[in-house]
Amino acid sequence: MKLGFQEAQLSYTSGSQSARAWTEAWVKAWAYCPHCGNAKMSQFPNNSPVADFLCVGCNEEFELKSQKGKFGPKVSDGAYKAKCERLAASNNPNLLLMNYDRVSLAVVNLFIVPKHFFVPEIIQERKPLAATARRAGWIGSNILLGKVPESGKIHIVQNGVVRPKELVLGEWQKTLFLRSKSLEARGWLLDVLKCVESLGKREFTLEEAYAFDRHLGDLYPGNQNIRPKIRQQLQYLRDRGFIEFVSRGSYRLK
């Protein structure tokens, strides 16, 4: 995998147009599908409603976002209503995020947020555009990247280093069970995983997980049995290989 952009792509006078051309051409030439491992990405026509690329092997769709610096806790995205409507759709695109260096004209980071990590809680509604705007009243969305667990950020390139393909494919396959879950069941698993990740250490106790009961109760006000639900999610995450049981009441993030 070559990380540099091709000089032949520098045909635009606009910086944003050039960057779009560089990054899209790079993905088409070098990226592979983490779902099936196919090394061929087909590009959708410009201004397609949601997706940018399609894997010709398994039909997984991908939306590309690229910028010079690292991504922060939120990423601006398309129309809020359309994004929410597509959450449970089979063709909801995976999110492909790229950081590049403008001086060396090369990819620095490339990671994917699989579509099965998308739940309503990470889609934020933005304010409608002002009446003076060209698209007055249009309501966009933000993807709250900070709410996505680390296992939902699968790096292909990290800090200028290409990660082994077999590791990427393995990390992707490990998360696929989420696709069989309803949005609410998926949300519970991801919220509990994100909570224990936020402790900032690999080993944690059940009591430390219970400390999030008020936070989770606010997210799921209809559930009156928060602590049993936390235990249930930890057991399921253990069975799926995201955490391991150390001793009674103690766990370790893998």
From TrEMBL:
Residues 184-252 form the Dam-replacing protein HTH domain. Transmembrane segments: none annotated. Keywords: Endonuclease, Hydrolase, Nuclease. It comes from the Bacteria. InterPro entries: DRP, DRP_C, DRP_PD-(D/E)XK_dom, WH-like_DNA-bd_sf. Gene3D superfamilies: Dam replacing family, catalytic PD-(D/E)XK domain (3.40.210.30), Winged helix-like DNA-binding domain superfamily/Winged helix DNA-binding domain (1.10.10.10). Pfam families: DpnI, DpnI_C. GO terms for molecular function: endonuclease activity. This is Restriction endonuclease. It comes from Bradyrhizobium guangzhouense.
